[in-house]
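Case study B.
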Amino acid sequence: MNESPHGSSTITRLVESFHRLPGIGPKSAQRLAYHVLRAPEEEARALAEALLDVKQRAVLCGACQQISDTDPCAVCDDTRRDRTVICVVEEPLDLVAIERTNGYHGLYHVLHGAISPADGVGPEDLKISELLTRLRRDDGDDAEAVGEVIVATNPNLEGEATAMYLARLLEPLGVRVTRLARGLPAGADLEYVDNVTLERALAFRQSVE
Amino acid sequence: MPARVPRVTKTEAVVLKRRRFGDSDRIVTLLTPARGKIEAIAKGALRPRSKLAGHLEPMTHVEIMMAHGRTLGIVTQAQTIEPFAALRDDLERLSAGLYLLELADRFTVEEAEADAAYVLLLTALLRLLRGDGHQLVVRSFELALLEATGFRPEWQRCAACRSEVTPDRLVWSPLAGGLLCERCRESHPESEPIDVSVVKVLRLIQDAPYEEAARVRLNQRVAAGMESVMHDLVRAMAERDLGSARFLAAVRHTRPVDDPAATAPDEPASLDGDVTYTPQEPLGASGQTGS
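Model:
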């Protein structure tokens, strides 16, 4: 009996490795493995080096907890950023999304998740104590002290629970806690919008300029 | 000839939880009146312009149209009946609501009749929404759900041998599912003392109409004792920890000091001081207004 369905244990190993990645099924794993097999050696080497690099060089920024090559990360190290505002996001990719807007110039804090009791994720599993430590350290009379924390967790049940829990912890520190506005997404169809979103969109309506 | 299974069905449901499925879909777990707990795919629910996503948030009472797929149902339409929006703006009520959802999820199995659990969950969420006290709503739901699912705790007699219990030295065991008599406690090393006031209120909530139980006033000590007992009991019956119970405790620790519920002094330890009837001032009431 042939134990390697691909006739080669190295290909089978590569297929299995791709298959372990999220969102990659057995067929996609095979296609990726055969793509690597047929690709020039430099391309395969670059992929392997990128995989190793991300494991060996990526670190968490000691301040904002973002994944970075350096500690502190480029954002925390940038003296042009507004150090009086911290935007709290759930995941590293949320930070990337906000940076892409070019509309925010303050600092960040990445929680690495949201409170989700049903999935066993509680406040102690998130980078909340790191945020509190950071705010207490910054607490002082100097102009650089953090005056506002923008809670940019997702507008869903877990995100709301996290936002309210954070607000409860942060308000005694004398920090202004704000939340991203909620409303209709661009291109939405009112007919299909859920009641909560529509209610918030009406509550936070703005003058037409 | 066997009856044809309809290709599309319409049902009401309470959304218990959801998880990612691939890059753009979600699998939602729904508690329905007719089919019990079911899972269904909400295609495209992770996309920003999804017509389904907002209606399929956990803790939403929703009407859905569902097509029958090969393994899972596929949600084709969803319309919110009650979003329980006010619960999402209040950390105490939100954490209590999350606990109700997790309990309903743990004590039901997929594709098995769960009419009673559905009605109990919806009723409890509506009571939280109108501002009833969390303690009363949650304890009442726990006891009724345990009874509906065959785990009714015993607060009158010995849970092991059905004999009378000694009121002056009550002990109970979560594994036995209630009080234990002098003799049976020997075979339950995990048994521990339980406050007589806690037992009295649990009996009342379990057997009296909700409105009557709502007239009881509790002090913090009895309320905390009841919560501890019920969490231990639920953990033993579910055979696992409930994350939302831990979150409830974490939320309580963050309660602002100017919140009357956080600073109310303990009333005298006598039984009469622990449990009193105050028809004009319904207990249970949390001081919050429902919407």
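Chain B touches chain A at residues 16-17, 19, 22-23, 48-49, 51, 53-55, 57-59, 80, 83, 85, 88-91, 94-95, 98-99, 101-102, 105, 242-247, 250-251, 254-256 (CB under 8 Å). The remaining cases will be described in the next quarterly update.
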